[in-house]
Automatic annotation (TrEMBL):
Zn(2+) binds at residues 171, 175, 181. Its EC number is 3.4.24.-. Pfam families: Astacin. Binds 1 zinc ion per subunit. The gene is LOC115587552. It comes from the Eukaryota. It comes from Sparus aurata (Gilthead sea bream). This is Metalloendopeptidase.
Length: 272
């Protein structure tokens, strides 16, 4: 009898230990909440928000947040037709309207993203009056922008509250100025390795290189336009690894880097 009780106790203890073992669950890093939001950069947040939304009919999102029927970049479009025009006073004025659906804190966040660009470049965001081409900033379906100036009313979506980071606003505004993601640069293979086997099969196209004029600027691991290390990960493994040092942080969420601002100044011939 005692032997039977001892055996039952042993088996019960074993089962308890088995059920206490952690279960390893496969994750898709771009579509699940990260446990530590402090580790997220602007693009991580954008992909997180956009992954939970159904894409609006008739609109394609390339690279996760670029709205267009085809990829173009203001730093490679013919005749700089995608650039916002420069005024005779040397400034580049980008008119905009903000949806009345935004509250005061939303407006402050978005305008902080604008100020982060305007304070160190010749690009100035101004409230639209009668201008024919302007940004129509709306809390639509996620965080996205068209690339460069498209002409007329140009939607830029910053959903609230998901996109309400000033770094996210600056990211989308830089798309509107004509900049693609940093890891899409034509020379990116010298600076990062794309781990193709870790990328979701239906998202491989988001990692294509673009034909870009890199403005004689260094590759910027700290660009607000850079994908995160786990963007579009299939199982939680990294999809982008810097080289030669794999531990270099990539991307951030604070706003344009010094090199981001430098590239805006070069592209728009700001004379700085």
């Amino acid at each position: 009898m005692n032997s039977a009780l001892i055996l039952l106790s042993f088996l019960f203890g074993l089962l308890t230990q088995v059920y206490a073992l952690p279960v390893k669950v496969g994750i898709k890093r771009f579509s699940d909440e990260l446990t530590d939001r402090d580790q997220m950069n602007a693009m991580d947040q954008i992909l997180l928000v956009n992954s939970k939304l159904r894409q609006p009919r008739g609109m394609a999102l390339r690279e996760g947040d670029i709205a267009s029927s085809y990829i173009r970049s203001a730093i490679s479009c013919p005749g700089n037709a995608c650039l916002w025009p420069k005024s005779i006073d040397g400034f580049v004025y980008v008119p905009y309207i903000l949806s009345p659906l935004y509250d005061d804190m939303d407006r402050i966040t978005i305008e902080s993203g604008m100020q982060d660009i305007s304070s160190a470049t010749c690009v100035k965001f101004i409230q639209r009056t009668v201008e024919g081409s302007f940004l129509d900033i709306q809390p639509r379906y996620g965080c996205w922008s068209f690339l460069g100036q498209t002409g007329g009313s140009q939607t830029l979506s910053l959903q609230t509250p998901g996109c309400m980071w000033s770094g996210v606003a600056a990211h989308e505004l830089m798309h509107a100025l004509g900049f693609v993601h940093e890891q899409s640069r034509s020379d990116r293979d010298h600076f990062v390795s794309i781990i193709w086997k870790n990328i979701m099969p239906d998202q491989l196209h988001n990692f294509r290189k673009q034909l870009t004029n890199n403005l004689n600027s260094p590759y910027d691991y700290g660009s607000v336009m850079h994908y995160g290390r786990y963007a579009f990960s299939e199982d939680g493994g990294p999809t982008i690894i810097p080289k030669p040092d794999p531990y270099i942080p990539i991307g951030q969420r604070d706003g344009p880097s010094l090199l981001d601002l430098h590239k805006i100044n070069v592209l728009y011939n700001c004379g700085r």
